[in-house]
């Protein structure tokens, strides 16, 4: 076989370039080269010319082995490589079992046929400079995670064979690495949890988005799920999946996040319900702040109804750990099953916004009773109880008119929360003289010592705590 063959020349030059890029000294590189390839027509001077050429920074020539088939390369090399094929194949298979996130990211990009420069650009853009230094990336790129001992034995050519054999394997890794949609939705914080193992799974089904999340034993600072009108979003830390009518709108609303536009906008409320259910049923999930928000007229009503049916259908034996829970615009009957999916004792702070509330059974749950802080926006105080152990309570009452006011509920609430270390009740309503008289009658029982009235705002102070009446 003549060294005039272009493919043959490219293989040899690639081997020299590989040693230069991995900082092999000239003497060791030449010895390894001769030992691996056997007698060849490339003499010492020609080898030194190309070694010096690449060492001088002329490494822009793309390594030809990235585009050559395994069989084509091996046919140009001595029989040594034929004997190594079985070991190469096993090593390539083992690469699929790696458990480091760096391996996962780089192998994924390898499978996308990305060059070293493209991989570096993607990592810099999405993962930041601290993810991996360029020199280390370069080293791993060309060595391709082969074991150091084996590399030292046979020189610097084995990595390219591993790479080509790896690409030749028809069955690609089935586990999701970054996402099915490439680097456009890679998150700096979320990507650390992706690997080729099954310790963490994140599924996006963009065609009909019936199941938004399937999670393992990972901890998030905040999970936020919002569904408004025809739009719904799921946010995990800084990772945002958005189902929007218009992609431009989503990008304007979240300029620092990458937004994925769904192909199916037909049944967003179904997706929203399934998304929340997926979170609540992830039994080993640990969340610092879980925020659930349904709004948007008919869709929100349908989503509430569907989610209620699903929550009651599934067993609540498995609990997720949540420190802080925020629920907005859910119907009161939905609250008890949601609370019962949470592990008692972990819930510390609750924020609820329920505009049409009445007596609700969620006040009887262990999760509600174990909380220490509450921030509530309610339309009335019916059934409000079991708050004796709360340390801090803030209540905003949306009294749109005097007919909303139930004196007995207000008195009962004041009695209930009076043991709290700090509490605030803010009453929002149009000014009504009858309401003034009612407050003037009720509040003195709780120790009013000063009352100020100016314009349409009434502030009533008692025992260092306060009830606000605002027009």
TrEMBL record:
<dbReference type="InterPro" id="IPR002900">
    <property type="entry name" value="DUF38/FTH_CAE_spp"/>
</dbReference>
<protein>
    <recommendedName>
        <fullName>DUF38 domain-containing protein</fullName>
    </recommendedName>
</protein>
<feature type="domain" description="DUF38">
    <location>
        <begin position="317"/>
        <end position="398"/>
    </location>
</feature>
<dbReference type="Pfam" id="PF01827">
    <property type="entry name" value="FTH"/>
</dbReference>
């Amino acid at each position: 076989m003549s060294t005039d063959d272009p493919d043959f020349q490219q293989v040899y030059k690639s081997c020299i370039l590989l040693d230069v890029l991995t900082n092999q000294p000239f003497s060791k590189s030449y010895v390894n080269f001769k030992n691996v390839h056997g007698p060849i027509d490339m003499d010492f001077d020609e080898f030194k010319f190309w070694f010096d050429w690449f060492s001088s920074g002329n490494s822009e020539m793309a390594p030809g082995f990235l585009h050559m088939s395994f069989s084509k390369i091996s046919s140009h090399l001595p029989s040594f490589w034929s004997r190594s094929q079985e070991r190469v194949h096993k090593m390539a298979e083992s690469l699929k079992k790696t458990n480091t996130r760096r391996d996962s990211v780089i192998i994924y990009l390898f499978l996308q046929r990305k060059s070293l420069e493209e991989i570096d650009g993607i990592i810099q853009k999405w993962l930041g400079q601290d993810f991996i230094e360029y020199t280390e990336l370069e080293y791993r790129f060309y060595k391709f995670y082969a074991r150091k001992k084996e590399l030292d034995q046979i020189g610097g050519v084995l990595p390219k064979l591993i790479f080509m054999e790896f690409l030749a394997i028809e069955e690609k890794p089935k586990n999701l690495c970054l996402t099915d949609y490439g680097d456009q939705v890679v998150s700096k914080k979320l990507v650390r949890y992706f690997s080729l193992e099954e310790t963490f799974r994140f599924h996006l089904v963009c065609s009909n988005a019936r199941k938004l999340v399937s999670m393992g034993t990972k901890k998030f600072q905040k999970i936020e799920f919002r569904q408004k009108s025809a739009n719904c979003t799921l946010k995990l830390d800084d990772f945002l999946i958005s189902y929007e009518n218009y992609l431009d709108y989503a990008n304007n609303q979240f300029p620092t996040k990458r937004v994925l536009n769904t192909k199916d906008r037909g049944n967003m409320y179904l997706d929203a319900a399934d998304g929340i259910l997926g979170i609540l049923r992830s039994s080993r999930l640990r969340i610092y702040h879980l925020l659930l928000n349904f709004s948007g007229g008919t869709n929100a009503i349908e989503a509430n109804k569907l989610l209620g049916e699903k929550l009651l259908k599934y067993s609540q034996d498995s609990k997720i750990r949540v420190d802080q829970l925020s629920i907005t615009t859910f119907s009161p009957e939905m609250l008890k099953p949601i609370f019962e999916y949470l592990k008692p004792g972990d819930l510390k702070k609750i924020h609820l916004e329920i505009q049409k509330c009445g007596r609700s059974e969620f006040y009887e749950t262990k999760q509600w009773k174990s909380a220490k802080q509450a921030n509530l926006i309610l339309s009335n105080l019916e059934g409000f109880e079991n708050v004796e152990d709360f340390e801090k309570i803030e209540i905003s009452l949306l009294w749109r008119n005097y007919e909303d006011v139930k004196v007995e509920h207000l008195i009962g609430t004041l009695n209930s929360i009076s043991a709290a270390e700090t509490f605030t009740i803010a009453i929002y309503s149009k000014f009504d003289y009858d309401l003034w008289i009612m407050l003037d009658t009720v509040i003195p029982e709780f120790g009013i010592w000063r009352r100020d009235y100016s314009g349409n705002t009434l502030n009533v102070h008692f025992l260092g705590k306060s009830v606000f009446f605002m027009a």
